[in-house]
Design brief:
Length: 282
């Protein structure tokens, strides 16, 4: 008995496409594909139907060469599915299982129709290649999402606040590193230009520790602000941080105040403003 050819495999899958689709959907439901609520029944059915139909078409046109141009529509579908699942919060394993779980219904169809081991081996290679493609696309999109979220968090964690005409405040929270310092500097310099600010208060109350590296980052920010024509005041230096800086021999070479309120009062005096307490209203 001669071994089955790739065309026999393509014919078999195309002829039993509805049965394979139903078996695949049942298997995905059992594996909990719909339990999280991130994917609706209709969307799952559409994805499975498209992938299976394009697989049968590609097998008929190009055999088991999953890198062939005829597989491009199928790869495009998997790319779109992987991208949407990355955005929906699916894990990489869930995305790969979506593709790999197709093996079981295809194997069952081959067995029922007395296909041989060659068919099983051929479809295994094809599905494995497609599953790896889906996983790589998912991984790439997750990395892009993480990078974008990190950038958004960095921007949100370094707001520049206008306290008074000509006075800005930059409250820092968390550790300063080179990348974040760049974001801080860009935001501050742009705000100095936008508001024609004369004084910028850099508040480090929320910075847990100040070491030599953090001090260097602060000095770079202060120097850049001065080049834009704004004086800087550093506020929020706690006793522990002051002691640490003395032990390390760190010199900020900039006016500093213990609290943001003290820094604001100094800034107002510098621009010729004064806060006067008024009598309480009856």
């Amino acid at each position: 008995m001669s071994q089955a050819s790739p065309s026999d495999l393509a014919t078999l899958i195309a002829a039993h496409e509805p049965d394979i689709l139903a078996h695949w959907l049942d298997l995905l439901r059992q594996q909990g594909a719909l339990q999280s609520g991130r994917l609706r029944e209709g969307e799952l059915q559409a994805q499975c139907r498209t992938v299976l139909h394009r697989l049968a078409t590609a097998l008929a046109a190009a055999g088991t060469d999953a890198a062939a141009p005829d597989y491009a529509p199928l790869r495009d579908s998997l790319t779109e599915i992987s991208r949407s699942r990355a955005l929906q919060g699916f894990s990489g394993a869930e995305t790969a299982i979506f593709v790999f779980s197709l093996k079981q219904p295809v194997f069952a169809t081959i067995e029922r129709n007395r296909g041989d081991a060659r068919m099983v081996w051929d479809i295994t290679q094809v599905i494995d290649t497609l599953g790896l493609h889906a996983f790589e696309i998912y991984q790439r999109n997750r990395e892009e999402i993480i990078v974008r979220q990190q950038q958004e968090i960095a921007e949100l964690s370094t707001p520049v606040v206008k306290l008074w005409d000509g006075v800005l405040a930059l409250p820092l929270i968390g550790t300063l590193d080179s990348q974040r310092t760049q974001v801080v500097m860009e935001n501050l310099l742009q705000s100095i230009v936008d508001h024609s600010a004369e004084i910028a208060i850099i508040d480090i109350t929320g910075v847990p520790t100040v070491d030599t590296l953090v001090a260097q980052h602060l000095l770079k920010t202060v120097a850049a602000a001065r080049l834009m024509g704004a004086d800087c005041i550093v506020s929020g230096i706690r006793p522990q941080i002051a002691q640490t800086m003395v032990h390390l021999g760190v010199e900020l070479n900039v006016v500093s105040k213990a609290t943001l309120a003290d820094a604001l009062a100094l800034a107002l005096r510098r621009i010729g403003r004064e806060v006067i307490a008024s009598a309480p209203r009856a």
